[in-house]
Amino acid sequence: MVKVGLLGLGTVGTGTAQILLDPDGRHPLLQDLELHRVGVRSLEKTRTVPLPSGCLTTDLKSIVTDPAVDIVVELLGGLEPARSLLLEAIAHGKHIVTANKAVIARYGDQLFTAANQQGVYVMLEAAVGGGIPVIQPLKQSLGANRIHTVIGIVNGTTNYILTRMQQEGGDFQDILVDAQRLGYAEADPTADVDGLDAADKIAILASLAFGRRIKLDQVHCEGIRQVGAADITYAQKLGFVIKLLAIARKPEYASSKIANLEVPELEVRVHPTLVPHSHPLASISGVHNAILVEGEPLGQVMFFGPGAGAGPTASAVVSDMINVASLLKLGVTGPDIANTGLHPLMACSHQHYAAVAPVEELITRFYARFLTQDQPGVIGKLGTCFGDHHVSLESIVQTGTQKNLAEIVVVTHHVREGNFHQALEQIRTLAAIDSIPTLLRVL
Ligand code: HSE
User: Fold this and answer.
1) How far is residue 238 CA from its own chain's centroid?
2) Closest ligand 1 atom to the C-alpha of 186?
3) Structure confidence by residue, pLDDT tens digits, 141-173
4) Atom in ligand 1 nearest the alpha carbon of residue 160
5) CB of 307 sitting under 6 A from ligand 1
6) Which listed CATH number (3.40.50.300, 3.40.430.10, 3.30.70.2750, 3.40.50.720) goes with 2-131+309-329?
7) Residues 417/365, Cβ–Cβ less than 8 Å
8) Which residue among the candidates 94, 201, 243, 250 is catalytic per the annotation?
9) For this structure, is 201 an active site residue?
């Protein structure tokens, strides 16, 4: 039997235990996985899953050092004690299965270096996209391709909020409060609505897709708080939906339209984005996640499904356990394998950091909404400021008014982000400009 030490019996931990304890009709290797020990915060809590007697403990360290445990499954979430326990488990020769995107995105280099030395695996299918199999395809099935773009809707909470704003015409804050009431958003929604959760996830996806380590502080990150009901309406009229996209791509493929461009290695960013109605990601609604991967020669492939929840995330966790169990049964793990540099499960062995482009160098289209005095010449002055900084406009419309101010919406052609912001600085000095409530990028 392959013995499993499970850390955490929350929503996903419980879902995982349920699958392990009910293997009939699933993959035959599940019969070989034994839930040996389960680490929890309190022994007092009533458990909804019938665990083997005596397996519960609050001593998590005793699980990661237990000589009988083969695979440590970390479903605690958060940075500590998860990171320390994972490192200790690796030092004791345990294979790791984790759903912890925060730890992987920040400390992946430590964990993978330690794991490669020990000849053990760190498996993380559940860390991105919940139940969607996307990690293993990036590591294995798509290996023949030169991947140039990964674009994902990887946060269900924000996609749920934006979808409702689109369907109901409501404001962000009201829908957030309702989403919290209904359990679709956390009491503290910061990590989701400010894009931090999506930033962790795209850092992980980029690292796998492009074979480079990514420094999380180089991932440009904007959340959805600035998106107003008016923006949703304007986007709709212009032929777009607004989505929080997590994007990693090689710039040269995106920017051939611009002359004299310096080409950095990789763009990695998270921000609300106007997505054309015809784009495959435009129709991903509610809490669902989707990840679009583009490469040569494959073209486009999109992974779609439930991005969170007990059952879906446990499905991903258990798939990793099955993969590790198959190798343990064949006896192909350990330092001997590590020394060959060959990893049957394609471990993350790359060492180099990506040169991530600063966001000012990004070449993109922009959407901007201005509130201005409704007087002659304002649109002309806006156009002049943009022109002075080589920002070419695709469309400029004034349809509405708000509190006696004119609402002007601009969509640019592809511009260098730094130029666009210089133009905005000049625009802010114009007496007729009241405010610029929203700045969004356009896919
Ligand atoms: N909070 C995440 C989301 C799920 O809303 O998608 C866990 O990664």
Assistant:
1) 27
2) 1
3) 999 999 999 999 999 999 999 999 999 999 999
4) 5
5) yes
6) 3.40.50.720
7) no
8) 201
9) yes
